[in-house]
Amino acid sequence: MENNAEIYDVAIIGSGPSGLTAGIYTSRADLKTILFAGLKWGGQLMLTTEVENFPGFPEGIMGPELMMNMRKQAERYGTKIIDVNFSQGDFSQRPFKLTAEDGETFYSKSIIIATGADTKWLQIPGEEEKIGRGVSSCAPCDAAFYRNKKVAVIGGGDSAMEEAIVLAKFAKEVFLIHRREEFRASEIMLKRAMDNPKIHFIFNTSPIEVLGDGKVEAIRLVTDPKLMIKKAGEEKKEATPESLGGKMIMGAEKFTWDFAVDGMFVAIGHIPNSSVFPDITKNKKGFIDRVHGTSTNIDGVFVAGDVYDHRYMQGVTAAAYGCEAALDAERWLGDQE
Amino acid sequence: MAPKITDADFQEKALKAGRVVLVDFWAEWCQPCKILGPIVEEFAQEYKDKMDIYEMNVDENPETPGQYNILSIPTLIFFKDGNPEKTMVGVHSKEQLKQAADELIG
User: Fold this and answer.
1) Does pTM surpass 0.90?
2) Predicted pLDDT of residue B4
């Protein structure tokens, strides 16, 4: 490393609840802390509306406001936050060397990886080129463009329910398309979606292609084993593509049909942002392993939040993981002296 | 913020400008737009002599976004000689904006 280069005690990569909570703890412990926030800072809560289950806010709080508060709190105690993307880390040398996307390098004695997870896309033909042109993963960002339109939401978890509920404020009709008949979503979110008169459920069905020229015109769907639908206030019942205004594709190997929509919102889960850490061990889905406590396989490199956690995935659990990693990093730094 | 452009003066300011024009389509309710706004502003400080840079509120101006099929914001469109030459959806860095601008300014 260059002479006189500044050496941080802790470098945090990521600016969601886990990264910022880690920053609050390490800087309050008087550790010299730098945090790579990324160009799109704040993590998944920046793409939500009201957060109702973060303790301490009995009336709820807007996701972006919560993140803004966490950022201010970390900065207040001295965390240096840089709004650039992290590019790569050299974990073979001490102090560790970190490079930002703009080429600037930083040195730190310890690292907390808190890069979180991003939208998992369907990876079907026609999807990627229409992101921003009718394909989206952020209803709170884009719902207003679908006023009086017909849209599909793909998925069966809480985030799919939230997307559908947000869209229903603007759209004429929302079709929640789910590959099974059971849901991962919580009871409260499922009930809210099911009670909404604009939201219709289509079961046992998966998209295989997004159709349209430069925009979304329809989705090609495969239904297995039989097409079931449910509208608010009604029982689940059998349907046909025609009864939904869809068009059956004759001669196809499986039960295949085209369904005309103006937009498709994807909410089938998340993939961990771990590919920029080739030296860190991960499970087969890419989630970073904890070896002992919050430590990864490399001594001095810790992990927190959704890049590790594929089970709970809550704002409050991410914050707690950030706290754990910060305390572990603090103890580890103390042991090195 | 960059100077405003509206449905009413879009034709005149963006399509008949005689030089490259960047329009930042945004809205009050869009969080990523609030992240991109200051980046566009910094970019504008450096590039205002080479091109025109505007921001359009899509809630107040529904026509132009419809015309260019904008269904997600923030969206940035670079216009040259009246044509939308490059569209960028989502948050981008100042470096990425400069690269796109440099290609069009030539």
Assistant:
1) no
2) 96
